[in-house]
Amino acid sequence: MSEAIILRPATIEDAEILLDWRNDAETRRVSHKTSEVTIDEHAIWLSKILGNANRRLLVAEKGGVSVGALRADLSDGVWELSWTVAPKARGRGIAKRMVTLLAAEISGPIRAEIKACNTASARIAEYAGMVLNKEVEGILHFSRAALK
Questions:
Q1: Domain map of the chain by residue range?
Q2: How far is residue 78's CA from residue 115's CA, in Å, rounded to a whole number?
Q3: Model pTM?
Q4: Which residues, including other chains, have CB under 8 Å from residue 79's CB and lie 6 or more apart?
Q5: Is the domain covering 5-144 a CATH 3.40.630.30 domain?
Q6: Partners of residue 7 on adjacent β-strands
Q7: What is the pLDDT of residues 9-46, one digit of tens each?
Q8: Are the beta carbons of 110 and 100 closer than 8 angstroms?
Q9: Residue 79 burial (C-beta neighbours within 10 Å; 0-12, 13-18, 19+)
């Protein structure tokens, strides 16, 4: 059996690793915003997100090592999920496990918007219980109703 993934709230101490993962070439390729983020832009973004009750930023750990990040943004009663896996941890099913964990923690409706070229994340959204509703301008729109 593989080692458990745990999710913990991100802190300011995670700033460097989160920025490294965000600026990774593959992460940028499948992100809505593909440009590199500066350290100053990242610091402002991180301080805003950590202080916002309608946003959750989590770090996934496996064996005490940070392996990915997830974000859940609440808007109009729906949590929008996004995620990334550390470049060195890709291809091991980590995203599938961490997104499923987060989705199970949220009883309300969830959604994700994924670039059509990001087939791995599309499969992850489906595995976590979301269904594809539509594709608009190269963006796949997934959702799951509130849990009963």
A1: 5-144
A2: 20
A3: 0.90
A4: 72, 73, 106, 108, 109, 110, 111
A5: yes
A6: 60
A7: 999 999 999 999 999 888 888 887 888 989 999 999 99
A8: no
A9: buried
